[in-house]
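Worked Example 4.2. Consider the chain below.
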Amino acid sequence: QVVVGTPGRVIDQLERKTLKLDKVKVAVLDEADEMLDMGFRDDIESILEQLPDERQTLLFSATMSKEIMQLTKRYQQDPVVVKVVRNELTAENIEQLFYEIKGRAKIEVMCRLIDLYQLNQIIVFCNTKLRVDEVVDEMIKRGYGADGLHGDMRQQARNQVMAKFRSGNANILVATDVAARGIDVSDVDAVVNYDIPLDPEYYVHRIGRTGRAGKSGKAFTFVVGREYSRLREIESYTKKRIDRGVVPSFADVIGVKKAKFVERVKQTVEEGGLEPFADMMEPLQHAGLSTEQIIQALLKLNMGAQTSEYSDADLADKYEKPNRDRGDRDRGDRRDGRRSFDRERGGFDRDRGGYDRRESRGNDRGGDRGERRGGGGGKDMVRLFVNVGRMDRVRPNDIVGALTGETGVAFDNIGHIDIYDKYSFVEVKKQDVNRVIEGMENNTIKGRQVRMEVAN
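Applying the procedure from the previous section yields the following structure tokens:
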């Protein structure tokens, strides 16, 4: 009665004549936005065209992009849009905090938060598959039970990871947004935005993984340098202020560990059964060790080294930030839809009006004024053409976030960004050109598949 399949597998069965669609009454496209992002549009349309005209067609999507609305016009008659109330946006049982830190300190800060709050089940979100693998490896090295989930994994491997997470054998799940779709675990203590999401809607989906069934939860977001403006976008979208968190000091974490250790020792003594170990003190004392030294050494073996390569001063991010008390949006950001990005301050330049009023002339293909991100420039920069623009709701931060997140190119290697209605231009260092073009192939910005090439 019900057939559930991926687009490719459904088409394969249609070609083999093992699946017939002539009597289908209802067609459901789940995760429509992600399906289109992953390039399945042709396959989806091929399947829909083979269905009977008399049917009900349902599209489920976290976002309603232009591509999805085009599908509704083509394959649905008088469709009704049903929007689920986003309770997560105002969920009072989720404590939301952000931490301004340096990128290299993310692992250290995350470990401190886990230890300080004694979190048992955590989902950590990263923007790329490579970052997922890196975080998992580092957490395992530090002795945490972590496992990863991303799009390159086979379904069997995903099932195994989720089984370990639900059973508690791996209490830290590191995942990308796409791979985490459909995860339904009710006892998640906290969500960590290891990478700040590229789209505000993703933030809502992420933090909705905790604080379920009336339970309390925590959502921690790491903000590095110039990502601060993306945090402001999230606050504006959710209409909820995210409080600044104070990075726990190393002494705070050790204090919690010590208190927890005292409880464990007391509980072990109360449980009894210590007799088999009674004769261990004598040989240790014969080795010239005092009782105090023995206890301290056992504490160190049990609790790990009590020093850190990071000083608390190094964890804080020292970039100057805009004044948070100026409202959700500075009014200057709205005029003409243009903003200028100040490389040194890491934010949009408000002191000078917030814009670059120059008209980009070059190869303007129409002469409309572009939104510009300043900085960069120079002989070693190459200008790239991007097939997305203002009509796709693209802003300079979206392009910067995509390039740094998907290709790993350094922020300082990105120069001018000029955004027009239907396309954009971005400057990158000559050494990064091939890396950027290849890294962005088959990737999307704001739900639209990106094509990048060296500008004429």
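Residues 198 and 401 are 6 Å apart (CA to CA). The two ends are 55 Å apart (CA to CA). Compare this with Example 4.1 before moving on.
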